[in-house]
Design brief:
This protein is α/β, with parallel strands linked by helices. It has helices spanning about 25-35, 55-60, 85-95, 115-120, 125-130, 145, 155-165, 175-185, 200-215, 235, 280-290, 345-355; strands at about 15-20, 45-50, 75, 105-110, 130-140, 185-190, 220-225, 265-270, 295-300, 310-315, 320-325, 335-340. β10 (about 310-315) and β11 (about 320-325) form a beta hairpin. The radius of gyration is 20 Å and the shape is globular. The relative contact order is 0.16.
Length: about 350
């Protein structure tokens, strides 16, 4: 059954929903599911990625949904929206609003390393302030990754740490990005629940609540559970949060900084030759990720003899592959992987290991 999303714009403004979440949380999958259930609404997408090659936009364009046309998808690669507001984000919004039939709702997928608060602040820019409102910020959490302790230790350890020091001691940039995304959210989607058991799911939700409590937001973001990014669009669209007017209740670890950068993380593209054995490739990727501490892998692979391209998605050592669409007649059959990790990741060693 298809639901028609209920949109409640503020004072005639076009509503926008910001989809945030750490690398590999399932943001693109959630957006694809949202498009499939949009019920004919005119939706436009702004997709941002950390790195030179845009994979998520390509995934969405391959979904087969009529909403995913070139005109409806604006892709901003090689940067982070929270750092390129004036150069990239505001012009993208203006371009969408100037169309003869402007969108009824704008969906913004941030990079997995983006801080959502600076992006929400951008809605006060004069060029768009009277025209667009942040209907809601949705943070997507990878339940399996969170249960493995990739973002923070378990809630008991967090509570002990807070009792001893009076505040959380963030040991890694990954934790800070993860918590900033939660602290800005109106809705938190705990995704990939099919990959964890009930005990781990409870642990993840306790971790989220602990982070929110320690952040002192004064707000209680609703926590939703999802598998494969499937969430009713009526829940995601039409929140009516007007988040740009509620910035004081959305603290960030970077509030006192004059600027923001991503020097803690690095991204590069590895070119591979044709890969005749997808299963063997997945095993190789698992070994390389484990040996070098890669955070995220994604890309498209040429499998000789197959008319479709192979989509590769990796979160830690969890590697998933499937054929997503046919190669186009005039499209080069290339094998390329985007690799993301913390600064210090040995690009030459990773490239050699994959080659």
């Amino acid at each position: 059954m298809t639901h028609r999303a209920v949109l409640r714009p503020s004072a005639g403004k076009t509503p926008a929903t910001v989809i945030t979440g750490f690398l590999g949380a399932g943001k693109t999958t959630l957006i694809r599911s949202l498009l499939e259930q949009a019920g004919g609404r005119r939706l436009a997408l702004i997709i941002n990625e950390f790195g030179d090659v845009g994979i998520d936009g390509e995934i969405l364009r391959a979904c087969g949904d009529p909403t995913c046309t070139e005109d409806n998808v604006i892709e901003l690669a090689n940067g982070c929206l929270c750092c390129t507001v004036a150069d990239d984000f505001v012009p993208a919004i203006e371009k969408l609003l100037s169309r003869p039939q402007p969108p009824e709702h704008i969906i913004i997928e941030t990079s997995g390393l983006a801080l959502p608060k600076p992006l929400v602040q951008a809605f006060h820019w004069p060029a768009i302030k009277t025209r667009v409102t942040v209907d809601g910020v949705v943070a997507v959490v990878d339940a399996a990754a969170a249960a493995e302790g990739r973002f923070a230790p378990d809630p008991t350890a967090l509570a002990a740490q807070a009792a001893e020091a009076g505040q959380l001691d963030h040991e890694t940039p990954v934790e800070e990005v993860f918590e900033d995304q939660l602290l800005c959210a109106d809705l938190i989607v705990v995704n990939k629940t099919d990959l964890v058991d009930a005990a781990d799911l409870a642990k993840v939700e306790d971790l989220i609540r602990a982070a929110m409590a320690e952040g002192g937001t004064g707000r209680e973001a609703k926590i939703l559970r999802a598998s494969n990014g499937k969430v009713d669009p009526v829940v995601l669209l039409g929140v009516g949060a007007r988040a740009e007017d509620d910035l004081a209740n959305r603290p960030s670890h970077h509030d006192e900084e004059e600027g923001h950068d991503h020097d803690d993380f690095t991204s590069f593209v590895v070119e591979l030759g044709p890969q005749p054995d997808p299963a063997a490739l997945a095993k190789t990727l698992e070994r390389v990720v484990a040996a070098h501490g890669v955070l995220r892998l994604k890309g498209f692979i040429d499998v000789p003899g197959k008319p479709m391209r192979l989509l590769v998605q990796g979160v830690g050592t969890r590697i998933q592959t499937h054929f997503d669409r046919f190669w186009k007649p005039d499209e080069p059959r290339r094998s390329r992987l985007v690799v993301i990790g913390e600064t210090g990741l040995d690009r030459d060693a990773v490239t050699a290991a994959l080659g």
